[in-house]
Amino acid sequence: MPPTPGPWYTPQPQQRPVPHNPYAQQGRGQDPPGPPRRGRPGRGPVATAVAAAVLLLAAAGGAYVLTDGGSGREQPAAPVAKGTPKPSGASGTSGPGTSSRSPAGSSPAPERIPTTDEINAGREPGDAKAWIVEDPTDMPRSNILLNDLWIVGDTVVQAVDRRVVAHRLSDGAQVWSLKLPSTVCETPVNPTPDGRVVVVHHNRAKSRCDQVQEIDLRTGRAGWHKELTKTGSMDGTIIVHSAISGGTLAIVQSMKATAYRISDGAELYDIPMQKTGGCYPDDVAGGPRLLVSYGCAAGSESPYSRLRGIDPATGRTLWQYRTRPGWKTGKVLSVEPVVLTTLHAERREDDWRVVALGPGGKPGRTIDPRPKGFAYCGDSGDAGQGIQNCPGAVVGNGLVALGGTDRVGAYGLTDGKLVWGVKSDTGGRLHPLRPEAGKAVLVYEGAGMSRPGRILRIGPGGADTEKEVLRHPASATKPEYGMLSGNLAYTNGRIVITPSMVNGDDAHRSARMISFAPAGD
Asked: Where is the composition biased (Pro residues) (predicted)?
């Protein structure tokens, strides 16, 4: 598709070339071709292969989780109960950033991961302060996909294999760890406002993802537990999706969806199929609102989707949106306001749009970001994760900000126009984190092989308004780059990063979590 002239790449007459804006040297309105599609662990082509294998793994009781966070959203704060912190530092026997070869016939030595003290000892004046977590838990010798990040009070919590673990935000110390009977296979993007969550883990005896466990994220205590029932051939529990809105949990299992009360696990109501159009629930989105996605007219020449807003307490339909024939709902970028992506049923991620809905689910502005080189979900594709897991997109202050392999920009939701855009020549992936005042956005620029990451504030004017908010220490470059910006959370000036997956093989161990904040915090 030919490029469209606009504010993207248009330097001011007096603008001098700056390292982060190669468009200052290019002609007005000359968009270069978009970036090549790249994969990364747990996403794109790699994750598609994982998705293809997940049924076999599930049938064998495998430990793979097909989900990915990366929302970059701030979660509701809640107080954290006091506990006895545990140290989270890493240790090793060889030099930083090296791995050791072992004699024939012996086990290879674990790869060395720098400690928090080593990273901070390498800080330069003005660098962020960091902490890093290596997971010493014995895990299967395979790649374990990591789950959503939850910020609750002064902790960050994540499900890892058979555990749910909380780390203190200030220093990374482990606050609590809850062991589950089997591998977690589904997590909602957000917890309840008072810090509770419900995870789904495998049923090893039946090779299903049907064990539902409520957890208080403030204390690490397990609450009620139940098993999802399989009532027919069309509501299997091999892969499920879940979402939390207020005190309600909604779970989709194949072509069936049900809502539960989080306080005690009681079933509230079914979310049925819609006979008109042959529409069945296929995913849910939570937060301030509860949305249900439906796939319709499957197998026909013109499949389509419906998106319903429902009252989480009663299940009553509040509004409904229908895609045009031949298009399907992709990802929900925001539930308030409702902003989603739509995909062409056949061309999928190669032909996509951003759609903002108005009151009552009425279609608002449709945005096509492809002429500016933006790829779907920050160039990460879609390997079947939940409907709210779309890296590289954030909504707020009347904007939808999109990132990707080498570019970031913001579109107005009311007029669909590009407000500003910047392209990077460093090769770092650019991830919008949070909208700021004045149409600006905080952006995380991921680390490169020899360059640490950083956080920028960019607003109208593009590179002319770019300001470095946080510079990560060079001593953290290798572990930060190794995480490939898999999952991100940002709160109160602090960023937490985890990879999309970790490896249980001791010879290929990698850091599980790293965090940066201003040195004074």
From this structure: 1-20
Q: Is residue 304 part of a domain?
A: yes
Q: Work out how many domains the chain is built from and give that number.
A: 1
CA pair distance 469, 480, nearest whole angstrom: 18
**Which residue segment(s) compose the domain that 312 sits in?**
37-85+115-517
As a whole number of angstroms, the longest Cα–Cα distance in the chain is: 69
DSSP-assigned letter for residue 328: E
Among positive and negative, which fits the CA dihedral 51, 57, 59, 63? negative
Question: Is 12 contained in some domain?
Answer: no
User: Residue 456: is it exposed, middle or buried by C-beta count within 10 angstroms (0-12/13-18/19+)?
Assistant: buried
CA-closest candidate to residue 147, choices 505, 513, 508, 501: 501
C-alpha count within 13 angstroms, C-beta hemisphere, residue 207: 9
The structure tokens 């917890």 sit at 191
Q: What is the Cα–Cα distance from 370 to 368, expressed in whole angstroms?
A: 6
Closest CA to 418 of 369, 466, 456, 465: 369
Beta bridge partners of 445: 430, 454
pTM, 2 dp: 0.80
384 CB-near residues (< 8 Å, 6+ apart): 47, 48, 51, 66, 239
Q: Report the CATH number that the domain containing residue 126 is assigned in CATH.
A: 2.130.10.10
Question: pLDDT tens digits, residue range 158-195?
Answer: 999 999 999 999 999 999 999 999 999 999 999 999 99
Any idea which of 8-12, 37-41, 168-172, 261-265 has the lowest mean pLDDT?
37-41
Q: Is residue 17 part of a domain?
A: no
